[in-house]
Amino acid sequence: FNVANTAVAPDGFSRVGVIVNGGFPGTLIQANKDDTLHIAVNDQLTDPTMR
């Protein structure tokens, strides 16, 4: 997953938000109880308040 910050306007008002793989909202990850998940994340966040 590529995680980055960019301008988003989900309610019509622009603000900086987090996008995953170029989209907002991010990709849904589903799992069942006792599942083990291995998720590779490419942190492209540049806003220091989002780290």
Automatic annotation (TrEMBL):
Coiled-coil intervals, chain numbering: none
Top-rank taxon, per record: Eukaryota
GO molecular-function terms, A-Z: copper ion binding
Alphabetized SUPFAM superfamilies for the sequence: Cupredoxins
Boundaries of every Plastocyanin-like domain copy: 3-49
InterPro entries referenced in this protein's UniProt entry, alphabetically: Cu-oxidase-like_N, Cupredoxin
Cross-referenced Gene3D superfamilies: Cupredoxins - blue copper proteins
Family: Belongs to the multicopper oxidase family.
Protein name as it appears in the record: Plastocyanin-like domain-containing protein
